[in-house]
User: Which sequence fits this backbone?
């Protein structure tokens, strides 16, 4: 059996965020399992981050009043990306991909720069 362990993971249990702990996962089934007697497993240190199931949104043009083609300035666009991320996670979406319908190349380059900046902000796009 191939096992993956997440160390220093925060887990929400019955509405309470538990202290950091190790969570063992059977890679074949995806199920959380009891700690194995063997130490033959891969380990990923989550460094006190939350481990939670979530959906992935594979295609969105926008949501929460934001459309990704509407670009006015860097600060507003970055704020809109953050707003979308917060809106998504409240609905069980842990990751999403923005779809941008046809826009001018110069506008698209500005949008990409903001996505890169947003991706580097802790907790929003990781």
Assistant:
């Amino acid at each position: 059996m191939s096992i993956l362990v997440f160390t220093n993971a925060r887990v929400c249990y019955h509405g309470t965020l538990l202290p950091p702990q190790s969570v063992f996962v059977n890679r074949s089934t995806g199920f959380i399992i009891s700690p194995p007697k063997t130490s033959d497993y891969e380990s990923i240190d989550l460094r006190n981050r939350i481990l939670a199931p979530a959906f992935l949104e594979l295609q969105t043009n926008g949501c929460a009043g934001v459309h990704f083609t509407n670009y006015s300035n860097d600060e507003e666009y970055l704020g809109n990306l953050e707003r979308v991320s917060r809106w998504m996670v409240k609905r069980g979406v842990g990751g999403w991909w923005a779809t941008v319908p046809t826009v001018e190349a110069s506008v698209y380059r500005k949008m990409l720069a903001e996505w890169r900046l947003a991706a580097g902000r802790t907790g929003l796009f990781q």
Summary: The helical segments are 74-89, 105-119. The longest strand covers residues 3-9.
